Amino acid sequence: MTVEEFNQTVDLYADNLYRFILSNIKDVDKARDIVQDTYEKLWMKVSDVESTNAKAYMFTTGYRTMLDFIKKEKNHRGDMSEARMNTLQSNNRYSDLKEVLNEALSKLPEIQRTAVLLRDYEGYNYAEIGEITGLKESQVKVYIFRAREFLKEYIGKMENVI
Asked: Is the pTM of this model over 0.70?
């Protein structure tokens, strides 16, 4: 990949990668840091990465960088399982469908949320999602199916929308 192709990759995909990371970690500054780290890693491998594979490489690297960041955060915060259970038992009521969807997405397991966001929000196909997440295509399909079923059930409850 040439410097010009690298710059073009940054121009074309930085916003998509940022939205993907932000939708998972919900912190603007941390999402920016992860995207910056991703582009730094791409720059370090610029001679090894083909420009046709730059988008997949970037999202794979961004996803893995995000996972490393999340693991590091969990180690610093300790066990949050009790706090997570309190979040799951929340009875918040919303009138904004986007807020309901974001609330529902936040309740999904991380891998399901990632798969469904890559598929439905970013438009990747199953094979590309498998490359990014390191899963088999059949596993990706199962995670997306389960996530969609949960979202349908969660959003389908009128008490969550009212």
From this structure: no
pLDDT in tens, 18-48: 988 888 888 888 889 988 888 888 888 888 8
As assigned by CATH, the class of the 80-162 domain is mainly alpha
CB-based contacts of 65, cutoff 8 Å, min separation 6:
34, 37, 38, 41
Could you tell me the maximum CA-CA distance found in the chain, to the nearest angstrom?
54
Cα 108 from Cα 4, distance rounded (Å): 39
Rounded-to-integer distance, Cα 2 and Cα 17, Å: 21
SS (H, E, C) the chain: CCHHHHHHHHHHHHHHHHHHHHHHHCCHHHHHHHHHHHHHHHHHCCCCCCHHHHHHHHHHHHHHHHHHHHHHHHHHHCCCHHHHHHHHCCCCCCCCHHHHHHHHHHHCCHHHHHHHHHHHHCCCCHHHHHHHHCCCHHHHHHHHHHHHHHHHHHHHCHHHHC
Q: Under CATH, what is the fold of the domain 1-78? A: Rna Polymerase Sigma Factor; Chain: A (1.10.1740)
**Domain residue spans in the chain?**
1-78, 80-162
Residue pair 115/132 in contact by the 8 Å Cβ criterion: no
